[in-house]
Design brief:
This protein is of the alpha/beta class. 42% of the residues lie in helices and 9% in strands. The longest helix is centred in the middle third of the chain and has 22 residues. The radius of gyration is 17 Å and the shape is globular.
Length: 186
């Protein structure tokens, strides 16, 4: 999931260093940080099946066709990426195929890095949008338990986790300070 051009800028920086890289955004993003003409066909197909066009614009085509294609393109996209890249940098707790490819990436010796930007790592009890819904204490406990379990799943397969220290309460592993890494500007 692209956030403020972080991954497009990161890919551009890798290119400047002579390292092949591709920023793949499977989320709906109105700013088009990664120009469409440079995206391989498998990436464009995966984006189409997920409705990853401009925010508020549904992907064209019948919904059941997109669901079938989405089920098929996830593994194809992962296989395509595994054949081309040695390092995978994921953001916002998402991956190419719903975190299901993480054990495979690990077994194949691929490096996996997860970057968290703030709201994706913030414990629910200090997350503004969550708190504004006025959940009860039991709800906050359950939300916190689920978020921590999600982080534990990621940590089992990640070589590194990058996060802001002020929001890293629920991680069980040491995190790389997001402020030390910085923001890759384009």
């Amino acid at each position: 999931v692209e956030i403020a051009g972080y991954y497009a800028g990161l890919a551009e920086g890798f290119h400047e260093l002579g390292v092949p890289a591709l920023a793949v955004d499977l989320g709906a993003n109105p700013y088009a940080y990664s120009p469409g003409s440079r995206r391989p066909w498998i990436v464009r197909l995966a984006q189409w099946t997920r409705g990853a066009g401009p925010v508020g614009s549904p992907a064209p085509g019948p919904r059941f066709v997109r669901r079938l294609l989405r089920a098929a393109t996830g593994p194809l996209l992962v296989a395509w990426a595994i054949a081309r890249f040695d390092v995978f940098i994921f953001g916002f707790g998402f991956s190419l195929f719903g975190l299901r490819e993480l054990p495979l990436l690990r077994r194949l010796g691929k490096r996996v890095i997860f970057v968290f930007h703030g709201s994706d790592a913030r414990p629910p009890y200090i997350d503004g949008p969550t708190v504004l819904t006025q959940p009860g204490v039991a709800d906050l406990i359950e939300l916190t338990r689920r978020r921590k379990a999600g982080f534990a799943r990621i940590e089992r397969h990640a070589d590194a986790v990058v996060s802001q220290p002020a929001f890293s309460h629920l991680f069980g592993c040491p995190v790389v300070d997001w402020f030390v890494v910085g923001m890759p500007w384009r």
